[in-house]
Amino acid sequence: MGLKKKNSELFVNTIGLLITLGIAFFLVIILIFILSDEPGKTIYYFLIGPFINKYYFGNMLNSAIPLIFTGLGIAVAFRASMFNLGGEGQVYAGGLAATVICLALPSAGALVGIFLAVLSAILVGGVIGGLSGFFKMKWDTDELISSFLFSAALILIINYFITGILNDPNSNLLTTPLISDKYFFLYIFPPSRLDISIIFALLTAILVFFFMFYSKWGYEMRMCGLNREFSRYGGINTAKYIVIPMFLSGGLHGLAGSISILGTYHMCLKGFSGGMGWNGIAVALIARNNPLAVIPAAIFFAYLEAGAKAAMLHSDITFEIAAVVQSTIFYLITAQALYNFVRYRKRVEV
């Protein structure tokens, strides 16, 4: 009976998500007819644009890579009933840490430099996220508020370093100097910017899945997320599963930042992380915190962005209208996923 009920709930949730998608795309089509003088062309490029050539398709997949990492970071925290709203700052800090390591070690071997850059980004993001978990454990500080405030402050501090101490005077952009090309990730789908980090992202999702569902730590973390008091009586050290999920979540966000620098930007641009953290929350909600489901959810969000850009380039809609179209789908899908998540939490608490 339990399995049958679980399958029934999965079916209902899937149908609900598909209905929400249908409504969202229907509203988008209405908006396009209202705002565009050539709606047929606009709809075509919004829906089909990301697939019309290798450049668009590869770049769409490339933009999904950081969303996979941030979605995984949020999913890990949510599974433990922890809330990380500091993803933007953690991605940004991870990107800066990776950039600083690469700039500080111009003569290191490629593998050594990449390893240290990625490791530093994970540790920086992990410490930032872990601090919110530590404050929650020590003083019962709301991690939702503390993580958000840490992020807001960090963004300003990192902007100071990018536009001040680390700024490249030879560039017309607000950015650090370019890292050595030996640290660049290999492109695998030219002429797009898709690089080998997509393989790393897929492997990371698989590893997180097995960690969460097939390891002792993952089991204890999920039990704490379902009922912390029951877990404590069962002999689980619930205190560490306040800090560890936030550390892992921050580490995955920092990893997203380093991957973006080494694979796409090759320098730490001011504001490069904009949207990665918040979109990661929506990706995790749509995936219902399943690490494997994060992959198609991230690709879907990348598809929305790529479709909006293609419609903007090939039809008469402006950037603002493209943003409205994208946001309509974003908020409807996120609202449906968030409703399911809140309903699930209430059922667990009862």
How would you describe the overall organization of this protein?
With 350 residues, the chain is mainly α. It has a domain at 65-288. The chain is built from 13 helices and no strands. The protein has helices at 2-35, 39-48, 54-79, 87-104, 110-139, 143-163, 197-214, 216-226, 228-233, 240-265, 276-286, 294-314, 319-349. The chain is globular, with a radius of gyration of 21 Å. The two termini are 20 Å apart. The model has no long low-confidence stretch (mean pLDDT 88).
In short:
Helices cover 75% and strands 0% of the residues. It is an all-alpha fold and 350 residues long.
- Fraction of residues in helices? over 70%
Q: How widely separated are the two ends?
A: 20 Å
Strand content: under 5%
Structural class: mainly alpha
Mean pLDDT: 88
The major pleated sheet works out as:
none
What general outline do the C-alpha atoms trace? globular
**Count of DSSP E strands?**
0
Poorly predicted regions: none
| Rg (C-alpha, Å) | 21 Å
Q: Secondary-structure element sequence?
A: HHHHHHHHHHHHH
- The count of helical stretches stands at 13
How is the secondary structure organized here?
Blueprint: H1 2-35, H2 39-48, H3 54-79, H4 87-104, H5 110-139, H6 143-163, H7 197-214, H8 216-226, H9 228-233, H10 240-265, H11 276-286, H12 294-314, H13 319-349
Helix pairs in contact: 1-2, 1-13, 2-12, 3-7, 3-10, 3-11, 3-12, 4-5, 4-6, 4-10, 4-11, 5-6, 5-10, 7-8, 11-12, 11-13, 12-13
Provide key terms for this protein.
mainly alpha, 350 residues
